[in-house]
TrEMBL record:
Domain NF-kappa-B essential modulator NEMO CC2-LZ: 9-86
Any single GO BP term: positive regulation of canonical NF-kappaB signal transduction
Coiled coil found in the keyword field: yes
The entry's keywords: Coiled coil
Pfam families (UniProt xref): CC2-LZ
Origin species: Thinocorus orbignyianus
An example Gene Ontology molecular-function term: K63-linked polyubiquitin modification-dependent protein binding
Top-level taxonomy: Eukaryota, Metazoa, Chordata, Craniata, Vertebrata
UniProt keyword annotation of Coiled coil present: yes
Name of the molecule in the record: NEMO protein
């Protein structure tokens, strides 16, 4: 029974080594994935900061446009009043 036991032990050893190699492969893959996720997570605050800057720029441009529009309306109103007064004085 000795050769049979030796063959069985070798088979178990080979199976254990294969299982260990598969586990190591899984560990390596998980490490690589974790590294990718970490890199992604590090870029998120940078992207968030860029988005905040764009948002602030957009808000500032819109406020400036609204201010210019209000000024233009005020000038148009003043011009209309001046024209009406000149017409009244002329007539």
């Amino acid at each position: 029974g000795c050769p049979w036991q030796l063959a069985e032990a070798r088979g178990r050893l080979r199976a254990a080594e294969e299982a260990l190699a598969a586990k190591q492969e899984l560990i390596d893959r998980l490490k690589a994935e974790a590294e990718e996720h970490r890199a992604t997570l590090e870029t998120i605050p940078v992207l968030q900061a860029q988005a905040d800057i764009y948002k602030a720029d957009f808000a500032a441009e819109r406020a400036a446009r609204e201010q210019l529009h209000a000024q233009r309306e005020a000038l148009q109103e003043a011009l209309d009043q001046l024209r009406a007064r000149m017409e009244a004085e002329g007539a």
